[in-house]
Specification:
506 residues, alpha/beta, Rossmann fold, eleven-stranded mixed beta sheet, two-stranded antiparallel ribbon, 17% strand
Amino acid sequence: MLYLLSFILIAMIGIQARQITPAEVKARQRRAYEKLLEARIPTPPITSTGIKNITFSNPKASEFWVDGTAIPEVDFDIGPSWAGLLPISGAQNETRELFFWFFPPAAQGSLDDLIFWTNGGPGCSSLEGLLQENGPFSWSWGTGAPIVNQFSWTNLSSIIYIEQPVGTGFSRGTPNIKNEDDLAAQLVGFLQQFLEVFSELKGKKFYIAGESYAGMYVPYIANFIFENPGMLDLNLQGTWISDPSITTNVVSQNIPALNFVNKYENVFALNSSFKQTLQATAESCGYADYMETFVTYPPTGPLPLPGNTTTVSRNCGIWRMIFNAALLINPAFNEYRIFDTFPILWDVLGFPGSFEDIQVSPIYFDRLDVKQAIHAPTDVAWTECSNVRVFPQGDASQPSSFTVLPNVIEKSRRSVIVHGLADFILMSDGSRIAIQNMTWGGMQGFQTPIQTESFVVDGMGVMGNMHNERGLTYYEVALSGHMIPQFSPKSAFQIMQYLMGFRETP
């Protein structure tokens, strides 16, 4: 009898469940998910209507206004924003223009601050950072439709995404820069034109942020601003560079490669004979035991280059050896986040891993309706990373840690370098070497060791390692790949809060 009653009860529950509409199921799932977020991640979420009121007196600003209710595929109001092309100088015959998308702060954000975000490449679009990292709406890998990004940096302040240098994304014109100083001059020239249209943003506290090759862009731009006071009516406070290119490929890729594989040996799953080959290669090339021998706290002097050269010989390309072997074992191997395996997540931007994705669906920013909604040129074929050489003859600048980064740290209120520990294309040990070989504030490197489990994220606990000395704070984020605001958004949000002075402790 008990069994029969149970069967009837289950059947009745099943009948009731079948009567719920798909819309009700979706609503219940969303409410349950929101309650879970509230319980586990105590951060006030952004709302689609919670935007600070901001107006611009220049009539030209209205030409760039974007209707937040009319963004294709976005079924919520992202609020007002401004987007379009502006020239890199005030010259009447100027043909070079950069594309931007500017967002005012959300309800809890500051009207006194402005963040500039750039992706790297060189030649990769900052709209990737907008859509999949720290923008007010997000359409990340494997997501069926855009969603509200509760960890948007608009919760902190206004933010402008700029596709730069010339040749990147929707930006127009023929690239002609030779080095990072040329790039910085053109970017500052663009910002001068931007501030003439959006003059109410003049005098704001300014933060320059970016990832990857922006480890070159950001310090050189910041240094240009500091060394040319009065050129730009913004008050530069500090810089963020994450998983940055700040040193040579020998240091950022080849020296750390063996230690990285040994740390994640179960992820790479390389066989024992190949690992012996890697060990022998590392020893013959001067990579083995480099961290233990030379990366000390404090340093004992300049850190040597293996073989006294920045060139990686054919016999010493250990990073490439590992990458090729990893692809044989895991054809979905992702150099940006090593934990990925098949199936490869669909990416609306067509670039989810080590290689471009081949897909039938159109790339989001290459859709005509999207271009029209954000005042982008309709005759430009948008790709996440440009097929155009933005440095036509290559970038002649030295790595930023060799040149301008120390000056930027010294002149900034705060500076942060952030690294995802699951990033293989640029590894955290490479950043550690670069920092310990760099002199700022009258000393070389960090004077005391980086303590393990020292980066604690509110409501989550230990999320990696952190160290602070002489105006520079260095973070290592556990489980995160190359794009930290995408892979560990709450960690990134807290770090940006610290950089901007919204929290006192790192």
